[in-house]
Amino acid sequence: MRFGSHNLDLSRPRLMGILNTTPDSFSDGGSYYQNGQLSLDLTLQRARKMLEEGADIIDVGGESTRPGARPPSEQEELDRVIPVVESLVKELGALVSVDTSSPAVMRASVRAGAGLINDVRALQREGALEAVAESGLPVCLMHMQGQPETMQAQPTYSDPVVEVIDFLKARAAECERAGIDRERLILDPGFGFGKTLAHNLALLRQLNDLVALGFPVLVGLSRKSMMDKLLGRDVSERLPGSLALALAAAERGAHIIRVHDVAATRDVLKVWSALDETPTGLNPTH
Ligand code: 7PJ
User: Fold this and answer.
1) What structural domains and CATH numbers belong to the chain?
2) CB within 10 Å: which end of the chain, N or C, has fewer?
């Protein structure tokens, strides 16, 4: 699949490394701040490390969408995200995705050299479809029930798998009508966005149903609160659980896995994918 000037073969699962430029994201929020200011050096260091560890895409976010979070102003988001995108592209030559719902941030990101737009609101904001249509870039459409401020209050579905798939199909059709080709679309069930543990597990269990639509599928499960419910673990202790979820998603055909812990996830996927490969250069007696 083409991502601006980058090409990515999605026949094996790819890793998207998370880089939050927010002061308040639930996991790495505020990590790259010095004296209350976002440090470009610290964000670059973190991105460089993720690329060395095997990240294929760096996802830059300037809005915390954790449950209960308040959206930043457009200017705040631009100020956080655009300098980071510019330097990741210029200095590291990275394939950069921008996690935003704002058409202004989308346009500025495209000018700064981003290769993918990642929208947790599936281009439902006024002007977002047009911004992506003009960009020529691929876009990830994610399902969310409700809004971050209130989405975990009481998520309800008659069938989460059917509803999520129907929503994503409808958004894909809307994109096509707006001039965004099918070949540019990536779909994401939106784990944790207006979903109970049971909803999240059903969506992961039946991820094949989403994969069967024929679009590349992206999943974000890393360190999410479903692990708290399953294990009673704090965010800093969710690596083993995250790896299990990443593997389950890969098994069911996910194409892009969005993670905080790139090196560990890479190892899991490498070992797992060895099962499908004919070993070459290995001593057959070993
Ligand atoms: C996701 C995301 C996700 C996509 C976040 C977090 C919250 N974008 N942005 N999918 N999650 N496409 O990392 O826990 O699941 S922010």
Assistant:
1) 2-274 (3.20.20.20)
2) C
